[in-house]
From TrEMBL:
NCBIfam families: yfcH (TIGR01777). Belongs to the NAD(P)-dependent epimerase/dehydratase family. SDR39U1 subfamily. Residues 4-119 form the NAD-dependent epimerase/dehydratase domain. This is TIGR01777 family protein. It comes from Kribbella rubisoli. Gene3D superfamilies: NAD(P)-binding Rossmann-like Domain. Residues 247-292 form the DUF1731 domain.
Length: 295
């Protein structure tokens, strides 16, 4: 099939591109500069500019673009987080709506949309979005798909947990304290901490792309949710390192501000839509997901 990727230069974009090309699919990458290779297409999502004719006749559009949320959310950076997701999705959705044969449109999204701290409550794709900055971002982000949906495209939003792989920036940050012997749970450790292996994330993207019955929000996280304490114990074991230095909640809040709640809050998200469609996880537990990440 013919895929068009936004955010192809990021970690997830590069991994997905490698996997697709290895299986013989064509991948075109959207770039915000003058194209330098035949597989690049120029666009300007901040201005909403993407010539539909430049896409040809794609089967799948995938948006993985978005500024890193793992830094303090100043007023200026909040706008960057929001616009980097909404403008890219809206520009792709508008282009999809203008094509003669409307492609499938998939955008990355996040489990942070469910809210800050949901305790033991089970979160499926039918659960309501919560309150707070990231919840508002997810509403706008997924809402930007509407032009494509209205024109007849099948659309999906992947509400993804932390993707585990030794090369992933987020995982490197999480595992660094353990590698130097200073690892430990975050806050109480009782909060559910949604994660997924890179292998299963890639497989989920392709499964959604190829399965005509799946649309709307799709949780991409372990089918057996783990708490932060369970994740901590499994990571320490996998690295053969101790985990005796818990990070107090007050220290995380002081260092990270509001973003700390994304690590301290509990989100027991289940991939109900994937499993109902018959998606088999290769790494269904935190232990197997971490083993795959460190392999």
């Amino acid at each position: 099939m013919k895929y068009v990727l936004a955010g192809a230069s990021g970690f997830l974009g590069k991994a997905l591109t490698r996997d697709l090309v290895a299986d013989g699919h064509q991948v075109l990458r959207l770039v915000r500069r003058t194209p330098s290779t035949p597989d690049e297409i120029s666009w300007d999502p901040a201005a909403g500019e993407l010539d539909p004719a430049s896409l040809g006749d794609p089967d799948i559009l995938v948006n993985l673009a978005g500024a890193n949320i793992g830094r303090p959310w100043t007023p200026t950076y909040r706008n960057t987080i929001r616009e980097s997701r909404v403008s890219t999705t809206a520009t792709l959705a508008t282009a999809a709506s203008q094509l003669d044969r409307h492609p499938v449109l998939i955008t990355q999204s996040g489990v942070g949309g469910y809210g800050t701290d949901l305790g033991d409550r089970i979160l499926t794709e039918d659960s309501e979005l919560g309150e707070g900055f990231l919840s508002d971002v997810v509403r706008l982000w997924e809402g930007a798909l509407e032009p494509a949906r209205a024109a007849g495209s099948r659309v999906a939003a992947l509400r993804t947990g932390v993707v585990l792989d030794r090369r992933a920036p987020a995982f490197q940050l999480l595992s660094l304290p353990f590698r130097v012997g200073l690892g430990g749970r975050l806050g109480s450790g009782r909060q559910y901490f949604p994660v997924v292996s890179l292998t299963d994330w890639i497989r989920a993207v392709r499964f959604v792309a190829e399965n005509d019955t799946i649309n709307g929000p799709v949780n991409v996280a372990l089918p057996t949710p783990a708490t932060n304490s369970e994740f901590t114990e499994a990571l320490a074991t996998a690295l053969n390192r101790p985990a005796f230095v818990p990070v107090p909640a007050f220290l995380m809040k002081a260092a990270l501000g509001e973003f700390a709640w994304e690590l301290l809050g509990s989100k027991r998200a289940l991939p109900t839509r994937l499993q109902s469609a018959g998606f088999p996880f290769h790494h269904p537990t935190v232990t197997t997901a971490l083993s795959a990440a460190l392999a």
